[in-house]
Request: fold
Amino acid sequence: MTNDSNTNTVSADATGLNEKQLFSFVEYQAEAAEETGYSEYSYWKSVWQNFLKKKAAVFMSCVFILLFAFTFVAGPIGNYKYDEIVPDQSQIFIQPNSQYWFGTDNLGRDYWCQVWYATQTSIKLSIIVAVGEIALGVMIGLVWGYVQKLDRFFTELYSILVNVPTIIYMTLVALMIGQSFKILVGTLILFGWMGSARLVRNLVLMYRDREYNLASRCLGTPMSRVLMRNILPYLTSVLILRLALSIPGAIGYETTLSYLGLGLGVDTPSLGILLRNARNYFLDFPYLLLFPAIIVSLITITFYLVGNAFSDACDPRNHV
Amino acid sequence: MVKYTIKRLLQSCITVLIVVTIVFLLLRLLPTDYYFTEEELMKLAPEQLNEQLEAAGLLDPPLVQLGRYYSQLAHFNLGTSRRIQTGVPVTQVIGGKFAISMRLGWISLAISVVAGMAYGVVQTMNKGRFWDHIGTAYTVFVRAVPSLVSYSLILILGSRYLGLPSMYSTRNVFLSSILPVVCLSMGSIAGYMLWTRRYMVDELNKDYIRLAKLKGMSTRSVMFKHVFKNAFVPLAQYLPQSILLVTGGSLLVERFFSVPGLGALLTDSISRYDLNLVQTLVMMYASMGIVGLFLGDVLMTLIDPRIRLLGREGTR
Reply:
């Protein structure tokens, strides 16, 4: 309707028609009316579009996906298989060449397959840990914030866990249970949920007594439904940001722990273990440090940038 | 205020006690073999081992041991070290290492507070321009790259190109402390920069700043007389905590540069089952964390009298 009248107006100005012709009623069209009344705004679509505008973050996430895919390809295309490498005294500290693409380490083992295998391990570990941490944190945080009788209990639990250096728990676990991929994942999740739980708890406190939740409670909606349907959707964007940022956190923590000998066992190479092995030699053989360090930094910077870009994109004020 | 302080201190004591008890009981879950070196295990007969354990009171039920430990604590007796420095009182073992960690920690904290806040101010004054972006890039780098990697970079740069020693040594304390201090400060400089900038930028948009500018005050005096002072309040909250925490030393930095400080002592004492030492260290770290939090709250009320702790517990 607007289009027609506009063109009319324009031509009217030019041709000098009278007032009656200028302001004539347009026939009612249901479709056209709907078009103006209905906005095509969708929250997640806008988030996505805003995210795509951040070129650096998009580029880095492509690089990361390629990198992760490459870890599966890298093993088979290398000259040595990870399962078959053996220490060889005659081959130690060979600089990268066509035979050993990343050189060899202090025991004469091919570095290429170790680095890529380790990358895969570290990425898997950090993603599982980050997801687990957030999931556990959300569950505990929801209950902590919503059930006021338990507030005291969880606050005490929180302050006890937070105030003991985590390194103590990690050492005790490493000594008492042992060191393996599963154990490390388990302990990192078990002692890593506090941050996100606290965040969720504070957000739940903000939303729990809004009128619509009060109404829900009065109508007898079970607690689980109030939490899942009424409160959790508000937290999604915050949680995704948190997830993106805890992946570099988990990788960094894993490298630190493995360096201290509290992370994975020496026979499960992760980037931390490689960096630990490299510590004594990298002043003379920098390539031992270079390859794992570049890869690990690439991964962590990617998630950091993506997380920040995503949090900007989630802010409705940046939407159109 | 006094009543609140006492209540809060009592609560903290209880938390510390619970923490120590948990760690105490966890340590008693370990098999007794671990109390000896492999050599001792090979040489001594099981009876002799048992005798030694009994003499040390390690065969009693854990709860009896716990009761004994409490009564020791009540007499301020923290026991002696078993394996790290056999027979030496725990306080003495810790005391020696304490000085080293504390010196490194305090120097780096002083550097990072001054440098971090100063650069934060520079960033705010040049918001959206070159120096601001440089600072942001630095914070992203420090926060995103794992500390192990950045420490390695510093080590390579420092020892290859500047010829600084790569290990801490007691003979050349000054030169060999430089790299550890740089590593320790690097992360916290980024932290102070980030938060100084953030709080100052928040403050800049407030009405009273606009008024001050309209009155014709120069940008410089607005920045320092109004913006920085007010932005400092939330920053001050974390100062006591970080002072206490850096005193405890950094595990990773101390391992990385072989600094004989407190951080390395903790893992060593756990992996060598020096129980009294572990308990004392845990107690120390836990009380540092809790006391630091409390002092931070108090400091904040002192700087900004508008803030009151009463009425809302747990300002964390």
Observations:
- The two ends of chain A are 25 Å apart (CA to CA).
- Chain A touches chain B through 38 residues (CB under 8 Å).
